[in-house]
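Our consortium's second objective concerns turning raw sequence data into structural hypotheses that experimental partners can test. To show how far this objective has progressed, the report includes one record in full. It was chosen at random from the queue rather than selected for favorable results. The single chain below, 298 residues long, was entered without modification.
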Amino acid sequence: MSGHAGVVELGIVQMRCEADTERNLARAQEMTREAAARGAKLVCLPELFRSRYFCQSEDAALFDLAEAIPGPSSRAFTALAAELDIAIVISVFERRTAGIYHNTALVLDGARGVIGMYRKMHIPDDPRFYEKFYFTPGDLGFKAFDTAACRVGTLVCWDQWYPEAARVTALLGAQILCYPTAIGWHPAERDALGESQYVAWEVIQRSHAVANGCFVAAVNRTGFEPDPSAPSEGIQFWGRSFVAGPDGQILCQAGADEESVLTVTLDLGRIEVQRRGWPFLRDRRIDAYEELSKRFID
């Protein structure tokens, strides 16, 4: 699991999501094609892009948005990955069986189709982010997958706040940590807390890149999406999708309010150079971390 050598062209898709799931799916495919036309060999899309972010309220009828695997999203993107001969990371509201649903990332790799599945491990429960109502916590553990382009680790949104998740995924050999994301402001909080919340989001993910000596791609949606139960309220997604290098520097970043397709050339050799200079993995005291398995140390 030493990973690939050379360079890889990474594409990230920042998009608006509307009520029409078919239009969202078509738009996501269109933007993925654009990334591939610019040379991308690995493309990552935002969290749950096929619909608006429905977790703003608790409504059992919204379980109807879930899809089996294979289903509409996986079939469409499996065909697209094969046609374009690229790897794609997509996010799916998975219906596993009656009453069990997951927030799932799939890795597709050209003609090989689906080569990996990751079910979101950390599930939030906050105002307008009522994900515990919808999603069963992941039971597959942390994952990294070998595509033709690179070895990619898949984590999803709330996972991006946890250094343990990034560390384990990096230790599995991931060269790029891809975080499909749906995060934004409660508009009422934006003036008072908006900038500090955004900065915290960016800093924690750049720190994962530094601590693990790998690349990080945080891929968000953009635009305002109303709360299904109170359309005058909702979330202003803050966009600003970005890719960070192993030294934590931002290599490319989208704006706050517009749809964007960004591509960036990643030199995978930078991982080894960074880890030689900053040998955090070498110096880890793996004999001294057993307390991390506890909820709290009293």
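The partners drew two points from this record. Residues 190-212 form the longest helix (23 residues). The longest strand covers residues 87-97. Both points have been shared with the crystallography group to help prioritize constructs.
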